[in-house]
Every structure is written in structure tokens, then in C-alpha cells.
Amino acid sequence: MSDAYCSDCKRQTEVVFDHSAGDTVCSECGLVLESHSIDETSEWRTFANESGDNDPVRVGGPTNPLLADGGLSTVIAKPNGATGEFLSSSLGRWQNRGSNPDRGLILAFKTIATMSDRLGLVATIKDRANEIYKRVEDQKSSRGRNQDALLAACLYIACRQEDKPRTVKEICSVANGATKKEIGRAKEYIVKQLGLENGQSVEMGTIHAGDFMRRFCSNLGMNNQAVKAAQEAVTKSEEFDIRRSPISIAAAVIYIITQLSDDKKPLKDISVATGVAEGTIRNSYKDLYPHVSKIIPGWYAKEEDLKNLCSP
User: Residues in domain TFIIB-type (predicted)?
Assistant: First the structure.
């Protein structure tokens, strides 16, 4: 049930949707508020124990402007039962023999989609990564390069451009074996190629420590009050000339905030959650320590608490 405004009751009431007739009915007075509605949900249900060959889908995927045929090519399915088995299998063989110019792109887009799903990224980032890869591929200069690293680098750049950055370590965790160094090299290569294509440098977007804060805090299971304090502290830290990477600053701020709370987190746990080495967090903490009284919100910790912080 959901709520909608009923013109007879003159107020918001609970409505019932009649799936057989497509009518939306007021549960109190029975007035039909909307008729012959189109149900856009699936017309079937699938279960884990059902056969994989029994696919109820009767339509293809959405169009894809990055593919030569718009993604609307026909695929001949495997024969289901004995009827028409010879004809279907023959057509399938001929289809496989035919060269599909988009086969490589389709596989690359599937890999990007898998990586995006594993990182919980939105569709706009996935589409941007697909577009970046297509532009690089059109230049025909990526042959012989590590494909997994190239796809991971496309996703990394897309996250930066959509203002939803991920660390290289996070991208590396879903990159099918590509190392951080390989992804870094692939990123430099892509930026160079896109720059040559446009005749100008590629806009990557600026990374701020606050971009990672909520996700890192969630990984550590911090409470809402600590998360709010960490976000305020990391925003304040940008006012000072702290020459550390945004990720290192975020990790150091989290360390300070947790040390001021009852739920103290070991440095090792913060290192695992943020992907920053323990030594780097210590050095960043050392740089932040002189400004800690101006960075930490007054409502979260008193001056006496700040004095009790361990000196670096």
C-alpha cells in the first residue's frame, strides 16, 4: 500500500493497486483514482533452483550508442528441445563464424560493469568509464597493453570526473589482478591519449579528503557523532598548509577522532579500512598535531581532552 490524495476524502489516504485491472483505488471510499495504469515491473519471477536455459526474457537490453549497431544485434539462442535443433544449431554456428566488430567492446563494457557493481558505483560513472575506453580504443594504439589495467584506469578516471573518487587501492581490489603500478601507468597513458585527441589537458577533478571520509568511517563502524566530527575536522584541515595526500589526511583525522572517543580504534584497523600504511598515518598525524585545537570541533572534545592526545 501507498498514500495518495483522494479528491472525495479531501486528504491523503491509503490506496490499493488492482494489478488485474490496472486501477488505483482509495482504500477508504473506493474511488478509482487512476485507471489502466501500465505496470513497468517484470512480468515474471525467477528462482535460484530454476534451470538456466529457461530464460523468460522476451526483450533485449537498452540501446548503446557506443556500439556500431547500437547494441540491437540479434543473437540466436541455443535450441530448447529436439524441435528445430538442427536449424538453430546451424544458424548458431554461422553466427559465431561471422565477425562482430563490437565483440571486444562488449566484453570490455561487461568487465567495467562488473567492477562498478563490486564497488557499488552509480550508472553515470560506469557510462563515463565506457565512453573513456571507447575513445581510447578508437585511436587503435592500446594493442599489447594490459587490458585489465586499462579498464581499471578508465573506471578510476571516471570516478574522478564524476566527483566520486575512489583510491587506486580500491580500484585495484576489483581489477582482476592488475597491480597499482600497472593501473597508474595505464591512467597516465589514457590521460596522454585523450589529451592528444582534444589538443588540451584532460580535466580529472580535484580530490578532497572529505570525499573519502564517510566511506572510511562506515568501514570502521563509527557512530554518527564521530562521523560528523570527522567531516567537520577534515573540512577545517584544508585551511592549513598540510602537504599530505587527501587520503592520508582523512586517515589521520579519523585516528584523532577515534582517540578522543570511548570507542578507540587501533592504528592497524584504520590502516586496513583506509588503505593507508600505518607509518604514513603516523606522519600525517604528526603534521596535523600542531593544528589539532583548531581542527577538532569544540562540541566534540574539550581542551583538556586534546591535551591528553599522544604527542607524535
Answer: 2-34
- CA of 90: how far to CAs of 52, 75, 82, 256, 309, in Å? 22, 13, 14, 68, 75
pTM above 0.85, yes or no: no
Minimal CA–CA distance to 188: which of 212, 155, 153?
A: 153
**Nearest CA to 3 among 24, 31, 29, 19?**
24
Q: How far apart are CA 81 and CA 211, in angstroms?
A: 54
Element (H, E) at 28: none
281 CA to centre of own chain: 26
Task: Kindly list the structural domains of the chain, giving each domain's residue range(s) and its CATH number in brackets, ordered by start.
Answer: 3-34 (no CATH), 102-198 (1.10.472.10), 210-308 (1.10.472.10)
Helices 210-220 & 267-274 angle (0-180, nearest 10) = 120
User: Which residues, 6+ apart, have CB-to-CB distance to 93 below 8 Å?
Assistant: none
CA pair distance 115, 99, nearest whole angstrom = 27
Grid cell for residue 172:
585495484
Between the alpha carbon of residue 207 and those of residues 124, 213, 294, the distances in Å are: 18, 12, 22
Please say whether the beta carbons of 4 and 33 come within 8 A.
yes
Q: Which residues contact 168 (CB under 8 A, 6 or more apart)?
A: 156, 180, 183, 184
- Asked if residue 86 has pLDDT above 60, the reply is no
Task: Return the C-alpha torsion angle 270, 214, 148, 190, nearest 10.
Answer: -120
The DSSP result for 205-230, as a single string, is ----THHHHHHHHHHHT--HHHHHHH
Contact indicator for 126, 113 with CB cutoff of 8 Å: yes
